[in-house]
Amino acid sequence: MDLVKAVGKDYIWLLDLHTRCTRDLDQQGIYQWTPEYPGPKTIKAAIASGCQWLLKHNGEFVGGVVLNEVQDPEWLTINWTFQGKILVIHALVIDKAFQGKGLGQMALEAIEAYAGEEGYMGIRMDVFSENPGAIYLYKKNGYTFLGDVFFQSKPKGHERYICLEKKFA
Questions:
Q1: What's the rounded Cα separation, in Å, for the pair 64 and 95?
Q2: DSSP classification of residue 105
Q3: pTM to 2 decimals?
Q4: Cα 152 to Cα 20: distance, rounded to the nearest angstrom
């Protein structure tokens, strides 16, 4: 799996990817994304700031992820186990057409390799508490679950997210 920095021409593809994946999640009763996030403004901003990445496998784009150091204000209540230079994963998505083939695992491995190469001490993120596939992926890969936060911008009854981290040796 390769990480390729997104550029302006990738916007339409990313918007379509997130729109389709949000629709698919909604059909499964997983209401973690809204038209605003990740939506047109957040995708454009991520591309402009250089933190939007495409996931490429066997020469084909299969997903996307935002990687930066931005930790949501809601995370202030979490008792993180370490401080320092920390990479944050946002909006990791694999196109439904490619799901179930181990690409989420490969994407996470590529992100962790990137973090190590860039001198990060570890990774943090939050995951929707009702997304069993994502929870399984992170748990299987040694991420520590540290507590819950609530995002009031999410649909009622779907505000709870789990914060996790992984420290590199």
A1: 9
A2: H
A3: 0.94
A4: 23
